[in-house]
Write a structure and sequence with these properties.
By secondary structure, the chain is an alpha+beta fold. Helix content is 44%, strand content 22%. The strands form five sheets. It has a five-stranded antiparallel beta sheet with strand order 1-15-3-11-12. Strands 7-8-4-10 form a four-stranded antiparallel beta sheet. The two termini are 21 Å apart.
Length: 452
């Protein structure tokens, strides 16, 4: 009689469970992976578009304020004793400037203090020092008893001042150490006053009045003559002597006039225009790349078929088209792909003839500046379209994670169900095999009895 076989888990039936579970999981995993891949790629694509548009926004911002006006070229005579820079508010013209004196730093020095008989630093004294620089607050320095050598006084002053207002150092001469105090401010505004109090009276030698301190540098103001007009300054930088011009004094040359001339300079404006063109082309390129259609042998870009890149491109090109006549007069040209380029010679000629041309287009109220800046703000702002789309995609990924976790739990339940079913099947087959063995045994005994 034939017997019933029981393959059981040990004979390979258990291998069906992973296969069945994998078959159950595959469609769901494929769906989740596809959605996740597409959403992640689109988030990245919108990030690249944002980078391109932000670059354009930054380039456009360079024309705000005085950025759309001609710059200033500053020319200074050879070995003039000063340098100069100017902003666009400076009036064109020529000036004769004589640097009569430079602003210097007030510096005081003590009398030399030799070492004591034992060869150690001698003690000047102890008590309180009060150092005032100009109209500033007094710096109070306490010198403890036994801590009154010039080196220790130097350290105490520097620790208290912290590099501000005044600095102290030692110069070691043949006759002994000399304490040198220097103001950190130039000119008469930085002159120091030193007073002492308390202690053993030894610090009185450092008082600026009645002590032994001598003036190493008086700390005088700078003085210049501009077209014969005298101007003094506590600093060697003059920011307001001439409107829009900063003059840095480097060398005193009393009685020697040197020229300073200001002429218009279109090069900064041209550089800003080239920067704008480059940023515009980069933005268009990013939009094209991220929305490109696929071909027979390649898939489409992440935003292929999405209306957003097309809408943004149309907005940018529309702003250019609306002002194309004025842009063309400045030497701008468009390529077949919509990109911009600049004819530098034509730009120079146009600006020379009409210095306000760029201001009318790209200044604060410019015909191109206003609509394009507004469009970029609406796209890139916190409530802008791109952020809205990106937030929606991130939200989709977040919900997808929840869906995947729910799916994983369902697959776990499926696996558990298969395991229970195959376990029951294994038990049933085992029981049937046991029954089969018993029946075979009984039939064998009956056959033997008949034969006997």
């Amino acid at each position: 009689m034939a017997t019933i076989s029981n393959p059981g888990f040990s004979s390979g039936l258990s291998g069906l469970i992973p296969q069945l579970v994998a078959a159950e999981r595959a469609p769901g995993d494929a769906r989740f992976n596809r959605i996740e891949s597409v959403a992640t790629a689109q988030i990245s694509a919108f990030g690249k578009v944002t980078a391109g548009l932000s670059g354009l926004q930054g380039a456009l911002a360079k024309f705000e304020g005085v950025g759309a006006s001609l710059g200033r070229k500053v020319s200074v005579g050879t070995d003039a004793g000063f340098t100069a820079t100017a902003n666009t508010k400076a009036a064109l013209g020529n000036y004769q400037i004589s640097v009569e004196s430079l602003a210097t730093t007030h510096k005081l020095q003590s009398a030399a203090l030799a070492k004591d008989a034992a060869g150690k630093d001698a003690q000047l004294g102890h008590g309180s020092l009060s150092i005032t620089v100009g109209d500033g607050e007094a710096i109070e320095v306490e010198i403890a008893e036994g801590k009154g050598s010039l080196a220790e006084i130097r350290d105490a002053i520097n620790a208290k001042a912290g590099g501000k207002e005044v600095t102290a150092t030692l110069v070691r001469g043949d006759s002994g150490d000399v304490l040198v105090l220097a103001s950190t401010k130039t000119g008469t505004d930085g002159r120091m006053q030193i007073s002492t109090s308390g202690g053993d009276g030894g610090l009185e030698a450092l008082a600026s009045s009645g002590g032994t301190m001598t003036v190493a540098d008086a700390g005088n103001d700078a003085r210049v003559l501009i077209d014969g007009i005298s101007r003094t300054s506590s600093s060697n930088r003059l920011d307001e002597a001439i409107d829009g011009i900063t003059i840095d004094l480097t060398k005193a040359k009393p009685g020697e006039n040197s020229s300073l001339s200001l002429t218009s300079d279109a090069s900064p404006l041209k550089a800003s225009m080239l920067s704008f063109i480059s940023a515009y082309n980069t933005a268009l390129s990013a939009l094209r790349t991220q929305s490109a259609s696929g071909g027979e042998s390649s898939s489409g870009a992440p935003l292929s078929g999405d209306s957003a890149p097309r809408s943004i491109t149309q907005s940018l090109r529309g702003a250019i088209s609306a002002n194309y006549a004025q842009l063309a007069e400045l030497g701008l040209k468009t390529g077949v792909d919509g990109s911009l380029s600049l004819d530098g010679s034509k730009f120079d000629t146009a600006i020379a003839a009409d210095p306000e041309a760029v201001q009318r287009l790209l200044g604060d109220e410019g015909a191109l500046q206003k609509p394009m800046a507004a469009a970029l703000k609406s796209l890139l702002g916190d409530d802008g379209m791109i952020k809205g789309r990106t937030d929606a995609l991130n939200s989709r990924l977040k919900s997808l994670k929840t869906e995947r976790e729910r799916f994983d739990r369902r697959i776990s339940d499926v696996q558990a169900r298969y395991t229970r079913q195959f376990t029951a099947l294994d038990m049933m087959v085992s029981q049937m095999q046991s029954t089969s063995s018993f029946l075979t045994q009984q039939l064998s005994q009956i056959t033997q009895l008949k034969q006997s």
